Input
Amino acid sequence: FPFAECVPARYVLAILGSIGMAIVYGLKVNLSVAMVAMVNHTALHGQGGHGAEPSENLMTSNITQRTSLHEECKPPGGESSGPVKIEDGPFDWSEPLQGTLLSCYFWGYLVSQIPLAHVAEHFSAKWVMLFSVAINVLCTLLTPVFTKLHFGGLILMRVLEGVGGGASFPAMHVMIAAWAPPAERMVMSTIIYVGTSAGTALSILMAGVLSAQWGWESVFYVMGALSCIWMILWIVLIQDSPNKQGFISPEERQMITSSLGTDVKVEEHPPVPWGKVFTSIPFWAILIAHTCNNFGWYMFLIEIPFYMKQVLKFNVASNAALSSLPYFPMLIFSVGLGKLLSSLQANGKISTTFARKTATSICTVIPTICLLGLCFIGCRHYEAVAVMSVGIVAMGAMFSGFLSNHIDIAPNFAGTLVALTNTVATLPGIVVPLFVGYVTKGNQNIGAWRVIFGVTIVLFIIEFLVFVIFGSGTEQSWNKSSEAEAKDEKTPLKD
Output
């Protein structure tokens, strides 16, 4: 195939995988933006809600006015931070119901990861990933219809989207384990997983424009329809392994399979050695790092816009633009760091373990310093935005760090391992909004946010210490079945 001669098949997988992750994450967050245009704010205001800012209501309802001893910021440059008139939507959902509608995605996400990881490892990661995107696309396209019937219809769509979303990380981990030569594993993992950040930022910007121009339904119809193109390309161009791929040069196939030791077809996938997994120190290092880091990640992703609104008094338009700004340089930084570490590893300058620990250190130490800075920077608006942006960009190092470390320690069970750690690491996504809402209720000032930043800093320090001391990039002995251990096999990783 001429196509195979021009474009390496493994990077076709990486790029389509990245777009797939972007779709899953983009369709995950679009409701939070569309909901502003869906809710009848006037009706809510009449019931005692704060109609002008529904997103703020989800976090801090019934805010009491009181004098604070802490510094009170003024809007930057004399701009108005007052509420913007928002056109009413058709739904008079209460604030608790709005919170349920946004969080019920995680109900499906929590329960689906481990069983679908098993399917990806034993049947086909390609089709599990297709299922992940397809169910998200289908539910997104049906969302306007089901929402108009009853809010229970929207809850059903969101739970099903969560089920699909839970399959995405395990499926892609299995694909990376089958396709990425050890020397390129970091780059390919980073390319694929930065799609989560790019998809989130693009979705927030697109959903805002679409809902303002063509109404809330357009958010779901347009984004769902565009995603259908990806499904066709994925079915045609992607296979589970180089041995099954038609669009690949013989040289590339031989290079990948020989580097991974998969020249010979293995029919039976070994059973997961659960006892050894749960007594593996490197696995626990990943799990703790993943969970602590997700607390910080969700804090930056979900809560920093509230900090900019509540404390720094940015208006809605400035807030949206500045909140999404760091995710594009983050994408470039993430891929660049992955490429640099991979090159050093390929040239024998550093080990896999050192590379993973370096990347994880970057995504903990720099955000920690930035959060410390925010505690003392006060009301210097644009300095605060710059510091936050540096912290978010540095978080991109996680894609080259602990987040793809599962593939190093046990490529045969990479899908199951990421399903286990990501299930636990989903809990901060539920806890962070509740925690921030509790701390800032009736207390929306710098002092309250210093408490939030302090807790996040402590978790970053725990992540750094645990992973640097106990993390490993070495393939664990339990990755191989007992039969395979007896044979003289190629080991795909160096220490």
About this structure: The first helix runs from residue 2 to 6. Confidence is low (pLDDT under 50) at residues 48-69, 483-495. The chain has 21 helices and no strands. The CA atoms of residues 245 and 439 lie 53 Å apart.
